[in-house]
């Protein structure tokens, strides 16, 4: 077993676990582990009573774990997986929490996480206690799809426990119970995020959750300096980026793709007025634009907007927009009346020059 680098286990219906904790050390060179269709398996590593010391033995080189169609599996993560960089979990229907709080310092090297079609998952990261020092994670990509009962990706704001500042790509699809995507501290340090896709999350209200306990009264600044693609599809309760007064910086944004977001006021996304953001008289209950046109729109290469329910409220604002003048070689899918506004604005601008 010492030279084994890849282990694939499929359709072994009688297995209740794959490894005992005492044999983990025998797989020193294992890099790839894939388990699927093992109907009786409840855990990957069985803890043996009286062998607590053996828990410290790690898979020294294990980097990738794939788990598929494991309907009796109750535990995914073990301390022995601290070297793992990629975890894919699909159709494991007894999992409720992917990373329990007892494991919260053991997945710091994880770079790619994919959890799909797990019917009973309620939380991805369960966090329960503060650390003396906040630990940085290496997580870069998260894909979540088909978790109907998912209520929170993080059970609490991870500030002071873990930082997720290396996130580059976040994909969230078909999570009917999720109301918010990012805790406040995570969103405040997402400067490396490039891709953000949220699709078919019927109860999603905002991207960033409010801080429940905060002494800071100043409007927060969210700096998504590398965000190039924002895709929002079929978010029927979605109202904006953050419920309270804030400033959002996305200087690298190239693609905005908004489809079926009936409650989203368009001017929160495409308003040209930056003064409203800094107006001290603005009520926090009123919607405010998350984007400042002068900073974001000039870099757009593709703009798609297909949600007509509130266009009328912002038509007068869009009459003053000139940001689409440079769209000669770019792609824009817009409503008929908006195209007329843009054409009129462009024509007037050219005549002025």
TrEMBL record:
The keyword Iron-sulfur does not apply. Residues 80-202 form the Disease resistance protein At4g27190-like leucine-rich repeats domain. It comes from the Eukaryota. InterPro entries: At4g27190-like_LRR, LRR_dom_sf, Plant_NBS-LRR. SUPFAM superfamilies: RNI-like. Keywords: Plant defense. The keyword Transferase does not apply. This is Disease resistance protein At4g27190-like leucine-rich repeats domain-containing protein. It comes from Trifolium subterraneum.
């Amino acid at each position: 077993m010492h030279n084994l680098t890849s282990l694939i286990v499929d359709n072994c219906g009688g297995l209740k676990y794959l490894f005992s904790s005492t044999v983990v050390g025998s797989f020193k060179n294992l890099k790839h582990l894939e388990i699927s269709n093992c109907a009786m398996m409840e855990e990957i590593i069985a803890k043996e009573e009286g062998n607590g010391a053996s828990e410290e033995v790690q898979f020294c080189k294990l980097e990738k774990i794939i788990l598929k169609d494991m309907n009796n599996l109750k535990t995914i993560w073990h301390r022995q997986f601290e070297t793992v960089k990629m975890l894919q979990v699909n159709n494991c229907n007894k999992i409720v929490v992917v990373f329990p709080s007892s494991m919260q310092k053991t997945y710091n090297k994880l770079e790619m996480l994919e959890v799909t079609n797990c019917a009973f998952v309620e939380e991805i990261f369960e966090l329960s206690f503060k650390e003396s020092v906040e630990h940085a994670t290496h997580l870069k990509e998260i894909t979540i799809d088909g978790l109907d009962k998912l209520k929170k990706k993080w059970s609490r704001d991870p500030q002071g426990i873990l930082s997720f500042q290396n996130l580059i790509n976040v994909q969230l699809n078909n999570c009917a119970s999720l109301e918010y995507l990012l805790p406040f501290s995570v969103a405040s340090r997402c400067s490396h995020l490039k891709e953000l896709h949220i699709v078919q999350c019927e109860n999603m209200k905002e991207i960033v959750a409010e801080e429940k306990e905060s002494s800071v009264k100043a409007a927060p600044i969210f700096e998504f300096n590398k965000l190039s693609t924002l895709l929002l599809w079929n978010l029927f309760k979605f109202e904006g980026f953050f419920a309270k007064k804030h400033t959002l910086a996305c200087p690298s944004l190239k693609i905005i793709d908004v489809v079926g977001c009936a409650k989203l006021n368009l001017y929160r996304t495409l308003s040209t007025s930056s003064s409203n953001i800094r107006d001290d008289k603005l009520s926090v209950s009123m919607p405010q634009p998350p984007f400042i046109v002068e900073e974001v729109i000039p870099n757009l290469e593709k703009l798609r907007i297909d949600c007509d329910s509130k266009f009328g409220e912002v038509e007068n604002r869009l009459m003053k927009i000139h940001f689409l003048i440079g769209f000669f070689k770019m792609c824009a899918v817009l409503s008929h009346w908006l195209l007329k506004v843009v054409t009129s604005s462009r024509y007037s601008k050219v005549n002025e020059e």
